[in-house]
Amino acid sequence: MFFKIGECYLNTQEMSLRINEQSILLEPKVFAVLMYFIEHNDRYISMEELHENLWQGRCVSDAAVRRIISKIRIVLNDDHKEPTYLQSLPKRGYKLICPVSQIAETSTSEETEKPISVKNNDAKKNKRFLFIVIATLFLFSLTYFIYKNIDKEVHVVTKVIDSVISDKKTLTVSNDGKYIAFTSKFSHEKDYHIYLKNQKNEVVKVLVDNTKLPLGLAFSNDNRHLYFSDNVDGVALLKLVDLKDEAHKTNTLVSDFYFIADVFTDSSEENVVYFSGQKSQQSAMLIYKLNLEGDLEEITSVAQKGAYDTQGSISPGSGKLAVLRAYSDRKRSSIRVLDLKSGRMLFNHTQNSVIYDVLWFDEEHIILLDSQKLTKINIKTGDSQRITVNINRLIALSRVSINTLLAIKDNDTINTLIEKKLPLSDFKNIEMIQEKQSKQGIIEAYHPIGNKVWMVINESRVNSLVFYEKAKVDKKVTLMSTEKPLKLISSSTSGQYVLLKLQERITILNTFDNSLTYLTKADDLIGDVAFSLDEKSVLYTRKNNGEWQVFMYDIGKKKQNIIFNGYRFIRPFNAGYVLGDDTGRLSRFDTEKEMVAPMLVNISTEKNTNWEIINNKIVWSTHNLKSTIFNEVDLYDADTLSIESKTFDFGVIRPRFYVDKTNSLIVVKSKGNRHSEIVSISIQ
After folding, report:
1. pTM of the entire structure?
2. Is the pLDDT of residue 303 over 70?
3. Which of 294, 194, 310, 199 minimizes the C-alpha distance to 243?
4. What is the DSSP string of 364-415?
């Protein structure tokens, strides 16, 4: 891949920069930082962001990072006082200010060719002839471009494959097409089972009955074994099942990883398995190759934090690896096709939506599955064809033959929002609301306070903030609507102010005049947000230059000031504030005494959890992907021995909750019973 940066050309395959016919080989870290600037050239990149995304927890000084940036300026021949490439601003960071574009590999050589001069007496004829040629070529190119970029459709025939009625996650097909293996869980069970179906006699039997989170399955080339991954409380396992043994004995191949997702094989290699995994919670997710003798090899690498190589697929003829890269912001995905021998990238595809799965159709085409469609892409030309499937909610794919795929189809589930009474010793259900109701979109957020309710409803990709009174459910008022991301954080008791996250910015909506006040920028790193006790101010935390700071924004005066340093979490109570550091360890600050007292309590730092102070009790949620735990402790007697907890199945009750302090309630989401089907897709 090539990028044009101002007047320079960056070759990502060779990690080299060409300037004025001179090619400069870049150091790996110089290349990684420059690529990060290119990928985020629309905004300033802080020193803190570079540390978090490119050094991933390693202790590296700011001076060392500045030396890397200085090397970038040197190779670009840029002046930091009057920059034309890389601009730096105090307290904001660094930004590429030159034009940046991705170009075809052939264009760099074409642009360096010297023009051929013509004689003056033939100039007019040549200009006229050149104009005709250019016009003809333009019309031809335009026609070809339109044809090439039309989403050509491929039609298919589908049918449901008989299996067990349950919630399925992943599947795979044996190389001879005789067997299907899939993971499945019944709604009343905690563990997943791995099933094997004989396509000839339709018999379905259980291979493994005690897996917790099996995300990857793959048959060995001789179909004598089945590889699978499992994830249990921060320990990932890669196992092998003997299919020829009646007892189906299992053997553990890997047990020292934090997380393992996809598992796949290469038809040309015996006793070898590939998988995507993380060695620790802080490390990158990469594609690994393992032979049965225990030799482990890294196949891919990740240069930035928040990028994960989650899945892979090897071409039918071997030699090429398609890698699905996911990003933590869930706003985009990419597919890279690599040459397995040289590691050279042969093809790259990026889209601004989540890709669920990728597999090979043949040696020149891959199939992508996202939430909207199946797409067939030619890796040599980039041509794409939409595969028309009259089935929604496909989540996983497997290849049977060149024209036949198997997929898992998720059926619709109806989730329920439950108001639960506090304290936890009671915690009974008060009211239940279906997430999807007639003549209404899906309720993304539901926040009651007293007799008032605020909701975010998503309908036809439009997010709307809706208000109503419980006694007047039929009289809902839409306060705002947007196609942009919208999250409800909290509402004031009076209802005048609503805290929102709008386009990744913390925002205050004044419902009296419908005005919006933005407190943060989209690229700010925010830790926590809450109203003050009198609801006249907003408390929020933001990370600046590696340190968390707590801000108080006065809504009436429209002014803010820093009230604490070093804390990521904050909640007010009648005598002061409860503060939490970056690890979630809590402390109590007494405003009158101006003293901080440590507490023997840690709250969760996960984004999909919450915490609050209600009736002088701290309530918070945690999870381990298997269980959701709600915890409660007295504010003035907080130690690990006095914590009361309630545990639920993570697949049923999610840890995120809203709080109704007026009625001493929290609102949780209960996932509906799910079942899915295996579907055969025959491409015509």
Report:
1. 0.53
2. yes
3. 194
4. SEEEEEESS-EEEEETTT--EEEEE-S---EEEEEEEETTEEEEEEEPP---
- With b for 16 or more beta-carbon neighbours within 10 A and e for fewer, the 587-605 pattern comes to bbbeeeeeeeeebebbbbe
The pLDDT value given to residue 156: 63
Report pLDDT for 556: 94
Q: How many angstroms separate the CA atoms of 149 and 385, rounded?
A: 9
How many CB atoms lie under 10 A from the CB of residue 280?
A: 12
Pairing of strands 452-459, 569-573: unpaired
**Average pLDDT of span 217-235:** 92
Range scoring the smallest mean pLDDT among 206-210, 301-305, 565-569 = 301-305
Report which of residues 217 and 328 the model is more confident about. 217
Return the pLDDT at 158.
66
pLDDT digits (tens, 9 = 90+) for 415-426: 889 999 999 988
Dihedral sign for Cα atoms in the order 592, 598, 603, 604 = positive
3-state percent breakdown (helix, strand, coil) of the chain, nearest 5? 10, 50, 35
Sheet holding 644-649, edge to edge: 611-614, 617-623, 627-634, 644-649
- How many other C-beta atoms lie within 10 A of the C-beta of residue 541? 21
Structural domains of the chain, ranges and CATH numbers in brackets: 2-111 (1.10.10.10), 153-410 (2.120.10.30)
Residues in Cβ contact with 527 at an 8 Å cutoff, skipping those fewer than 6 apart: 540, 541, 542, 543, 548, 568, 569
On whether the CB atoms of residues 627 and 647 are closer than 8 A, the answer is yes
Adjacent-strand bridge partners of 150: none
- Whether 466 contacts 443, CB under 8 Å: no
Res 242 pLDDT > 90: yes
The one-character DSSP state at 116 is P
- Widest Cα–Cα separation across the chain: 98
| pLDDT over 50 at 265, yes or no | yes
- Joined together, the tokens standing for residue 411 give 């059926």
Distance CA 156, CA 386 (A): 11
- In 10 A of CB 476, how many CB atoms? 15
Q: What is the DSSP secondary-structure string of 594-661?
A: TEEEEEEEE----TT--EEEETTEEEEEEE-SSEEEEEEEETTS--GGG-EEEEEETTTB-S--EEET
The CA-atom distances, in angstroms, between 32 and each of 15, 45, 68, 96, 639 are 9, 14, 10, 14, 45
Does pLDDT of 89 surpass 50?
yes
Per residue in 129-142, pLDDT (tens digit) is 545 544 544 444 44
The partner residues of 142 in beta bridges, in order of sequence, read: none
576-580 β-sheet, strand order: 569-573, 576-580, 585-590, 595-602
For position 555, what pLDDT does the model report?
96
d(CA 550, CA 540): 6
